[in-house]
C-alpha cells in the first residue's frame, strides 16, 4: 500500500523478492518500507502471481519479484528483490500497467499497448506462444487507441472507446474469453457483450458500459474502470491550496490546507509529484 506521504509499504509472501524490500525471506508479516522507491511520486502499483510493477507520475516504470518468463521487462529471467527501472519503457509515457500471473501489459499515453513475460497461451497478443523478455508493442492494436487494459492469469483484455469494443487474447479455457473460440487466442479479437439491453453507450458513459462487460461472467478478470485504478492518494500541492494559504484565512478549511502543506513538504515524493504535469 502507498501512504499519502508517498511511501510504499509491502508485506506477505516474498519467496521471489516480490515485496521489493531487498531480501527473499519467504514471509514478511509486518509492513516494510520499499526503500528503493523512496522519493518517487507513484501513480499506480500492481501485483501479479509473484511480481510487482509500479508507475510514477512521470511515467517511469519499476519492476521486481519473480522473473522466470521475463515478466519484469528487464531483458533477462533473473528475479529481483528490489525495484528495477524498466529502461525499455523510458520513452513510452506509461499511464497504466496491469499484471497477470506471469505476464505484464503497459498502456501508453497515446493508447498503445505493449506486453511482456509469459506468452504460452497467447496472452501477449503477438500471434505466437513465445515468451518476451522485453516490452513489445501489440501490433494488432496499433492505431486503436486503447483506454483500458486488464490482465488475468493467462489472458488479457483491452478496451477501445472509439469502437466501443473489448478485445481479448490468451487462454479461452472454460469460456473465460466470453465466447467459444479455440482455447488459445493468439491475437486480439473483439468480443460482444453477453446481454443486449437495447441501449447504446454514450462516449461519456463508456466506463460503465465496459465495466458491465467485465462483470457479466465473461471472464474472471476484475478491472475497475474508474479513477480508483490509479492511486491518486499521494498528497500534492494544488493551486487552490496555495491561494488559501496566501489569503491567510481563518476558516477551518485553512487549517486543513496548512496540515496538507506540512505533509507535502515533509515528503520527497510529494514535493516531486507536485511539480509534474498532470497525467
UniProtKB/TrEMBL annotation:
Residue span(s) of domain RCC1-like: 2-195
Q: Write out the entry's keywords from A to Z.
A: Ligase, Repeat
Q: Where are the RCC repeats?
A: 6-58, 59-110, 111-162
**Which InterPro entries has this protein been placed in?**
RCC1-like_dom, RCC1/BLIP-II, Reg_chr_condens, Ub-ligase/GTPase-reg
> Is Calcium there in the keyword field?
no
**Any single biological process term in GO:** ubiquitin-dependent protein catabolic process
Q: Which GO terms describe its molecular function?
A: ligase activity; ubiquitin protein ligase activity
* Pfam families from the UniProt entry: WD40_RLD
| Cellular component GO terms held in the UniProt record | cytoplasm
Name of protein: HERC5 ligase
Q: Which organism is it from?
A: Syrrhaptes paradoxus
Amino acid at each position: 500500500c502507498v501512504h499519502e506521504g508517498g511511501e510504499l509499504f509491502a508485506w506477505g509472501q516474498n519467496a521471489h523478492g516480490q515485496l521489493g524490500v531487498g531480501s527473499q525471506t519467504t514471509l514478511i508479516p509486518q509492513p516494510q518500507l520499499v526503500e528503493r522507491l523512496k522519493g518517487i511520486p507513484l501513480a499506480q502499483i500492481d501485483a501479479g502471481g509473484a511480481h510487482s510493477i509500479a508507475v510514477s507520475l512521470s511515467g517511469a516504470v519499476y519492476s521486481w519479484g519473480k522473473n522466470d518468463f521475463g515478466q519484469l521487462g528487464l531483458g533477462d529471467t533473473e528475479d529481483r528483490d528490489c525495484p528495477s527501472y524498466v529502461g525499455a519503457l523510458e520513452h513510452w509515457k506509461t499511464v497504466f500497467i496491469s499484471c497477470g500471473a506471469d505476464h505484464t501489459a503497459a498502456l501508453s499515453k497515446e493508447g498503445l499497448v505493449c506486453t511482456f513475460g509469459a506468452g504460452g497461451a497467447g496472452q501477449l497478443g503477438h500471434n505466437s506462444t513465445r515468451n518476451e523478455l522485453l516490452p513489445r508493442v501489440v501490433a494488432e492494436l496499433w492505431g486503436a487507441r486503447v483506454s483500458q487494459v486488464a490482465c488475468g492469469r493467462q489472458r488479457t483484455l483491452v478496451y477501445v472507446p472509439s469502437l466501443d469494443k473489448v478485445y481479448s487474447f490468451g487462454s479461452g479455457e472454460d469460456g473465460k474469453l466470453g465466447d467459444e473460440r479455440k482455447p488459445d487466442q493468439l491475437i486480439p479479437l473483439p468480443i460482444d457483450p453477453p446481454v443486449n439491453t437495447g441501449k447504446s453507450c454514450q462516449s461519456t458513459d463508456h466506463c460503465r458500459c465496459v465495466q458491465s462487460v467485465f462483470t457479466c461472467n465473461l471472464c474472471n478478470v476484475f478491472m475497475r474502470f474508474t479513477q480508483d485504478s490509479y492511486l491518486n492518494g499521494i498528497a500534492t500541492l494544488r493551486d487552490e491550496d496555495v491561494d488559501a494559504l496566501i489569503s491567510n484565512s481563518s476558516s477551518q478549511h485553512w487549517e486543513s490546507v496548512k496540515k496538507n502543506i506540512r505533509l507535502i513538504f515533509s515528503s520527497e515524493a510529494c514535493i516531486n509529484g507536485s511539480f509534474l504535469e498532470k497525467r
